[in-house]
Amino acid sequence: MNLDELKKWPPYLEKAILREHVSSYEAFVKQLYVDIDHIIVLLEDDRKDISDLQKNGEDKITNMIKRDLLVIGYDATHDEVYGGHVDLLVKKNNYRWIGEAKIHRGPKYLQQGMEQLITRYTTGNGNQSCGGLLIYIFNKNAKKVMDQWKERVVNSGCCSIESCSVKTLAFLSTRNHRSSGLPFTVRHIPVLLHFDPDDKSVRNRVTQA
For residue range 137-159, what is the model confidence (pLDDT) as tens digits? Predict the structure, then answer.
């Protein structure tokens, strides 16, 4: 099927075809990021209802992402044993993409997640040379959070850094994988879940006056 034929399909079928007929690992990852970014937008739209999940850890939020990936046709699992209990594993034929999810509790905590992703869950082989760090941010000023995290990654001295061209605040880091010796790229993906509107505080003060 060529591109002209594909354009005749409705958008949702076009995307389904693109997911089903990826021609390379790079194409698989590129389409996966498009779909994950869309799912994240929907999560951020519902941040008022998700804000209470902060105290429950990452699992419930990650399960929402997994569920939505399943709905649109991905083979996605949560907490599958794959060198450890993997937060998010997405498979397509021999392709693998692994995501580690962390509620932001400071750069040191995120560092643990990144090391788990690179040294425990992945081989860094050509069919799994990319992964993601999903950062659930419940506190305000996500830019500051991501700038501090990027600074820590840069200061580790083992990664090259580049900005993400399609998602504001996200960035990519690449370093040679310990197992394969090949470049392994992590996409650091913020999920903005902070919800503390000023009008609620004003309304409470008026009620108490």
Answer: 999 999 999 999 999 999 987 78
**Which DSSP helix (H) or strand (E) runs through 143?**
helix 142-155
Q: pTM for this structure? A: 0.86
Q: How far is CA 149 from CA 33, 130, 146, 154, 160, in A?
A: 20, 19, 5, 9, 14
What residue segments make up the domains of the chain, in order of their start?
24-208
For tokens 């003060």, what's the residue? 205
Over the stretch 35-44, which tens digit does the pLDDT of each residue have?
999 999 999 9
Residue 31 amino acid letter = Q
Q: Which two tokens stand for residue 55?
A: 């105290």
Phi/psi at 20 (nearest 5 deg)?
-75, -30
Terminal CA-to-CA distance of the chain, rounded, Å?
68
Tell me if 90 sits within 8 A of 145, measured CB to CB: no
In the chain, the amino acid numbered 52 is D
Q: How big is the chain, counted in residues?
A: 209
